Amino acid sequence: MKAILRRELTAYFTSPIGYVFIGVFAFISGFYFNEYVLVSGSGDISIPMYSSLLILVLLVPVLTMRLIAEERASRTEQLLLSSPVSVWSIALGKLLAAMCVYGGAMVTTFPYVVIIAIHGSPVWGKILASYLGFLLLGLCFVSIGLFFSSVTENQIIALVITIGVLLASFLAGILPSTGVDLLNQVISLVAVTGRFADFRNGILMAEDVIYYLSISALFVFLTVRGIEKRRWS
């Protein structure tokens, strides 16, 4: 898995993808921080983080679209599968590489916390919960993108499908209550971004953590099963 991780990280930073992802995210999050914290005088970093969710819906698919689709298009997937590395190691190595780049983007927001700590009165519980939620949400998005990258050889198709799924999930998270319990439960299940509200409010609930980890595990499992099916077909 370490070899896959190193290989993917090298690929991210020998191409513009890693730099573009981190740079665009840093620019947008900086804009929101200026507007919602510096200009307004608020010390709540969860507001610009929440405002960045839609940007993640558009950016994460760019990060994940090539993970497996590129291997299939260049016919290197079979070489990779014939190497002494398990399919789980391949999937997890690629997932962790994308999460490292995602984590690099998160690091660019650390100076905002320092600024708030110096000039304001930070609520540390709320800040830490927001960062944990942001990390778990990213893990969920990357896992979904990894799966859709594994079902096609075309990176653009993987990009479009992933954006569509994540955007639908985002919109489901901001829908008002329908008054129908069953429908509300279904919407709550598919609204991945909706769970972030608890984290941004400083509420750390085990069910939210389990939800994000379960969704991530499900899509990694589906990715592995799809690769294994091609391996033996």
Task: Tell me about this structure.
With 233 residues, the chain is mostly helical. The chain is 78% helix and 0% strand. The mean pLDDT is 87. The chain is built from 13 helices and no strands. The protein has one domain. The two termini are 24 Å apart. The chain is globular.
Write the layout of secondary structure elements.
Blueprint: H1 2-13, H2 16-38, H3 46-51, H4 53-64, H5 69-73, H6 77-81, H7 87-107, H8 110-119, H9 124-150, H10 155-173, H11 181-190, H12 196-200, H13 206-232
Helix pairs in contact: 1-7, 2-4, 2-7, 4-9, 4-10, 7-9, 7-13, 9-10, 9-13
Short structural summary:
With 233 residues, the protein is an all-alpha fold.
What would you call the shape? globular
Q: From the alpha-carbon coordinates, what is the Rg to the nearest angstrom? A: 18 Å
The succession of helices and strands, N to C, reads HHHHHHHHHHHHH
Count up the domains: 1
Oligomer status: single chain
Mean pLDDT: 87
Question: Distance between the terminal alpha carbons, to the nearest Å?
Answer: 24 Å
Low-confidence stretches: none
